[in-house]
Amino acid sequence: MSAFPLYLDYAATTPVDERVVAVMMRYLGRDGVFGNAASIDHAHGAAAAEAVERARGQLAQAVNAGPGDIVWTSGATEADNLALKGAVGAAAGAAHVITVTTEHKAVTDPCRQLERQGARVTWLAPAPDGLIEPGAVVNALREDTAVVSVMLVNNETGVIQDIAAIGRALRDHGCLFHVDAAQALGRLPVDVEALNADLISFSGHKIYGPKGVGALYVRRSARARLVAQIHGGGHEAGLRAGTLATHQVAGMGEAARLARQALIHEAGRIGALSARFLAQVERLPGIHLNGHREQRVPHILNLAFDGVDGEALLADLAWREQGLAVSSGAACSSATRAPSHVLRALGLNDEQAEASVRFSLGRFTTEEDVDAAAARVCDAVRRLRRISPLWADERAA
Amino acid sequence: MSGVPYSAPVWAHFDNPRNIGAWNSPGADVVTGEARTPAGPAVLRLHCRLEAGAVREARFQAYGNVVVIAVGSWLAEWLQGRTPAQARSLTAETVAERLELSAVQRYSALMAVDALNDALARYDEA
After folding, report:
1. pTM for the whole thing?
2. Is A4 on the interface with B (CB under 8 A)?
3. In the sheet where A300-305 sits, what is the strand order?
């Protein structure tokens, strides 16, 4: 057994696949392709540029885009910032933004910043199952709406929004449509044409690639309606300055290629593991799956446990014998220890939101892992319920 | 396991809480007190069975984070054999000190004292 607890937090981050590590190593040392991809006047730089373009092609192919539509960034957070601030910055005069209360902080925080700078933001609330009606998005449109931002897969609940339908409904309205697909890539087919989106954010470290790299897909027709947020050399066709981290970019390209290759097999395998885990945990009474039961990726299970405090449950799972690495929702909310804004938006009260735990499965999760994890979770919940006065009262009622 | 982000006494009580639960059909010799937090949904419930002017046995129930549970376990253990007068002398400072609580965890020590005083008030009524 490894020194670390069993890892079921793949939605927070994934380990870098060994095949990706092997590719990345080629771009680091003195004997490798360490050149600056912008220094194409010599062989070192030209080789680095070639590696960057190969990776761009790999990511583009994985999402059915043209290589010229991919802008490398430092991660999905930067891609989200570029999409939102870039679209509002390009709009003449006052701009309006539409987004959803359950978005990742990488979208909600830039939106709040834009509000402070004078933009108007409409915050749409999803139904208790986490879904947004395309009609609600259209109804919120205004003449000055510059950008609409809706995520494809929710990072806390795994709920899949019907992005294609929202994109279709927005098509003739002239605003840009941004989609944060950080949790979607490698988990379900992502096709930029089918999604009807103009701007799509991707992350390297959610797909068994390295941290510190991501990308924004920018539809050709949207290019002129986006202004750069980082200046200093005009890299990435003027949309994102800065010397590219060749090894990171090459790693993300390879990770995207592997993700596309493994998608069907992996989705089926993890779907079965997830169902197996859920069936075992749901033998306990008072367990609730947060978010839509069917319209979700199987990798993420967000469960609420009646009568048990989430922090105590997490501590039990993390630090007692046979530990599990799981999360109370978004890693970013865990840092602030506030009840999840996503779960609150689904109508859960503080108590229910605090009693929720996110389990996320991935490429290296085995059947043995989920069986051990389910048994461990059931033990911890039973143990804490024996102590809980709320559970005792509920049983007595 | 290394890296546990709690003090040793807190973790020891959370890992292996003592005196948990309530009596199924408590007699007149059992008094119960409860404390809640205004900010969060935490609940600490304390049950004391008194005999010959002293706590013969104490049990606790807690809903809340690790520290709330640890404080409940510590309190129920500490109470065994104490007289109501001795119990009344317990302060939040003592609880915080014994469990090595940080400043932000101190509200749990107040919960312990509140639950205890609530139980003792019922003993006085009886």
Report:
1. 0.92
2. no
3. A287-289, A300-305, A356-360
